[in-house]
Here is the input.
Amino acid sequence: MFKKVLVADDLGSINLGVLTIAKTLGLNNVERVEYCDDAYLRIKKGILDKDPYDLLITDLSFKEDHRTQKYPSGEDLIKVLRKEIPNLKIIVYSIEDRLQKVRRLISQYNVNAYVCKGRKGLEELSKAVKEVYEDRVFTSQQVSQALTNKTTLDIDDFDILLLRNLALGKSQEEISLDFKQKKISPCSLSSIEKRLNKLKIQFSANNTIHLVAIGKDIGLI
Amino acid sequence: MFKKVLVADDLGSINLGVLTIAKTLGLNNVERVEYCDDAYLRIKKGILDKDPYDLLITDLSFKEDHRTQKYPSGEDLIKVLRKEIPNLKIIVYSIEDRLQKVRRLISQYNVNAYVCKGRKGLEELSKAVKEVYEDRVFTSQQVSQALTNKTTLDIDDFDILLLRNLALGKSQEEISLDFKQKKISPCSLSSIEKRLNKLKIQFSANNTIHLVAIGKDIGLI
DNA sequence: AACTTCATTACGGGTTTCCGGAATTACCTT
DNA sequence: AAGGTAATTCCGGAAACCCGTAATGAAGTT
Here is the structure.
């Protein structure tokens, strides 16, 4: 089984549950941190000391407090770790069950498991640890379609950027000018209109407000 | 100290932490449920059996699953309990720290404490139990301004209804017609425009899309 | 080089929204 | 009942958005 495990979660009570499960799995060397920055430092230190962690279990959202963080969210942490230490096993353990977000994490960062916090969360986490140890990918039942279902997969970064800009209150013309300045490929007002139209059809949104609201609901932006 | 306590939370691991804290506080009779409906039934049964609960600690958001619920959220549960059993002490223990939501809960339902799940969550919960036992209201530091700060208090149900309708993709004219049919007081297109303008100024939103996005972010809709 | 294809851009007219001001109505005070 | 204030409604022009079509441009094919 895994020799050295790190758990990153800012809720003390969650950590407590995870540590309990860990014991029953025969994980004897489990440490916990409450900040992503601490997680990063510990993992780097483990490598320097020739005693690296071989599993990270992390939440996605961490509350902000007085400590300013370099990696404020679990996603930031995963991003940098995947780049620097690609062979580290990572299990995400989060309340977040919106498919778009799960899909991004799995496809972009190749996390080894995605477990939803919930009534059966700890059981599933336990299963995930075993599966990941056998080099398989695990996802909770409720988000498993994130891997298979391709319905909204033809939404690219441009679409998200566009929606984010709209949600920030920019007009379509302002966005067009902004894109022109930043040399972002389709930058004409017409193209932006067309893209929005495509998105409205895909999400069956009545208008742009509806579209942005849906985008927020499903965790796209 | 409290004689009979019920904890409602769908995350097993959270419950574990809460139960641990409860013991250190000298609460010997603590039960837990994972669904709001179960909480309601137990509390009602307690009264019938002449052995009522005197404290409820509940989360706000419960995951949906195969079981269809009469009270799907903690807010629904609180609403009905406050109406039927006004003297029951209620502590909300939730990850939710958006002021608007907290404000609604405290002012509308008079919950006795609001504790944010977080790094110090369990400590604060412990403090909250003691305070509530002394008939005082407790709120976590980070949301304490929900009680004092009145900045956005002049937003009424009409505003929220309006924003919700917009987020659902209705045009302003459709909303106007809808309001006319439902006899909702200001229903003219012009009034709707004026109200939106007021909200845009209050939230310093550039346009309606921005306004709806902000509304979603702060938990207003 | 001519052709096809596809993405991007440009344009025009209709609709919705935005933003004043003015008129009307509702409600409260005296 | 008269008067005053605030909310609501009506109106009109400017701006933004919507939507279809046509023009342009950048590939790759033969």
Summary: Chain B has two domains: 5-148, 157-217.
